[in-house]
Amino acid sequence: MTGFAQARAELATPGGALAFTLTLKSVNHRFLDLNLRLPPGLEALAPGIERRLKSELRRGHVDCMVQFDQSPPAAYRLDAAMAAAYRQAWKELSGRAPDSEAHPEPEAMLAVPGMLAACTPPLLGADATPGKLPSGFETALGKAVAGLIRMRQVEGSALRRELESRLEHLSKDVERIAVQQTALETALRERLRRRLNDMAVPEVSAERLAQEAALLAERADISEELARLRAHAGQFAATLAAGGEIGKKLEFLLQEMHREAGTLLAKTGSGSGAGLEITEAGLRIRLELEKLREQVQNLE
């Protein structure tokens, strides 16, 4: 499900408080896929952020981005070993005694590549606990997660109405098929009679015709499939009404309904009027199930 939320706060660092903005973005995804983008120096917070997000969210591709309002103070590190080697080489080249107090110009030393390197200043105190979020950061993350969930809930409410509407269309087609079931049995009996006549079969007794027609009707009996479709549709509606983490349960129900619809179509592949109407209704059910499945994959 899609969503967007931001929260602003300050992070206490050894160099002073730094204001930052925490942004959460979410788009549809069948599973929970987290992508963290943290400034250098805050990498140690990643486990704590992931743990908090996983405790609140179940699905979606979620981007979590932290940006400071201004860059942290720059810090540089002098390569002491390189500096000592440079001084030693300078004395040897200048003919000075190794214990001489003379030194090369600092500007010349700093011009040597690698002598001075920028480094990330410490943003977390030495007493910071690995995996534990600083209080200010944890508060900002909590506000952002709450805002993201609220936005996703608004989308979820609209999606629920869409699912209920499609489920209603599906249920109506199930009942249309149930109405045509008796007509299908009559059509099968008549088709059998016509075939026997076309094959110039000697007059068949009414009892034998009834037996053969009963066998055809049994093979085309869709009572169980209709009962299971009704039951699954009822469970689907009840699960939607209950709310909570329902995405995976609804996916399972749709999978079962798709299987029943396929069996129903396989049993009723008749060109008769009733069979044709059942086939058309069954195909509409399959189409609604596909549309429902696409939407349900976005639900938690």
Write the SSE topology.
Blueprint: E1 3-13, E2 16-27, E3 32-37, H1 46-56, E4 60-68, E5 75-78, H2 80-94, H3 106-110, E6 116-119, H4 135-198, H5 206-219, H6 223-242, H7 247-267, H8 273-296
Parallel strand pairs: 3-4
Antiparallel strand pairs: 1-2, 2-4, 5-6
Helix pairs in contact: 1-4, 4-5, 4-6, 4-8, 6-7, 7-8
Task: Give a description of the structure.
The chain has 300 residues and is an alpha+beta fold. The protein folds into three domains: 3-72 and 133-151, Ribosomal Protein S5, domain 2; 75-119, no CATH class; 160-296, Up-down Bundle (Four Helix Bundle (Hemerythrin (Met), subunit A)). It contains eight helices and six strands, in the order E-E-E-H-E-E-H-H-E-H-H-H-H-H. The chain has helices at residues 46-56, 80-94, 106-110, 135-198, 206-219, 223-242, 247-267, 273-296; strands at residues 3-13, 16-27, 32-37, 60-68, 75-78, 116-119. It has a four-stranded mixed beta sheet. Strands 5-6 form a two-stranded antiparallel ribbon. Helix 1 (46-56) links the parallel strand 3 (32-37) and strand 4. The protein is elongated.
